[in-house]
Each structure stands twice: as C-alpha cells, then as structure tokens.
Amino acid sequence: MKTLYLIRHAKSDWKDGSESDFDRGLNKRGRKAVVTMSNALKKMRIMPDLILSSSAKRARLTTMGLAENLGYKGEIRYLDALYLADIETMETIVSGLDKRYNTLFLVGHNPGLTLWFNLLTGSTIDNIPTLGIAGAAFPVETWSQIKNTKAKKTFFIYPKMFKDPVQ
How far lies 150's CA from each of 65, 101, 117, 161, in Å? Predict the structure, then answer.
C-alpha cells in the first residue's frame, strides 16, 4: 500500500509587489494554517516517510512548518520541477521513487494538484484551497505502479474545516 498526500502551499503574501511569484512567502493567515493543519495531521497520526516540495518560497515555508510541527526528521527534497507542475511531471517524479517509501507528502501548487488528485481518485474537487490536503491510497507495492492504478480517496481537509480562527 502506498499513500500520497497532495498538499497545496499555505496562503501566500502579496504585500511586496516587487517579489516574483516564485519568491513570495506566507502571510499571517498562511502561517496560522500551517499550525492548524499540522495539528490535524497529528490527530490522524499521519507522518510521511518522505516529503517532496516545490522549491518556491511559499511551498518551502509550508513544508518546513509542517515538518517542524509534526516532529518529522526524515528527508525533504525541494524540487524546481514541482513549481507549478503539471500532472505528467508530478506523476513522473512520484512513480520514480524507491519502494521503501510508503507514505509521501507532495507540497505544490494548483491547478496541477487538484487536477491530478481528481484523475487519481475519480473525485470532482473543484479546488484544493491553500493548505488543503488530499489523501490518496494505492493498492500497490511500488510507486511505479500508480500510473495504471485507481487510488482511493482517504480524505480531503482544509483550514476552514477547523475551529481555529485561521481563515
């Protein structure tokens, strides 16, 4: 069994108009959402074996915050290819992973994350919002097998679902 959690970066900061899209950080709401969502993952006892993240600043900050709050001590890979990645790029990266990883966090961007999750699970989610987390479980032994396998949607959560005054 392989489990993939597609995680959209937290709410980004648009205050500094001189920053490129790639270099935008997180705003206050985004930083609070990192705590809210890591607490939700803790309650569900979800811990990755590996984290892959876009190298964009808002994704890196989201990844670092989640990892710290979860107490994750494993490997984190920041990949330029995940910045605004399409389905084919994400699928190629994930399907090439070593089979020793069973639980994967992939932190990235829309619209790719939403489109890929819907394709993998047959879901009809309109939009994975900022710091939304969508889980997909695959009945396979290796990541290379996900290309031809329908995943089961395990859950879809996002900050506004929780009572924390995040949004």
Answer: 31, 19, 11, 27
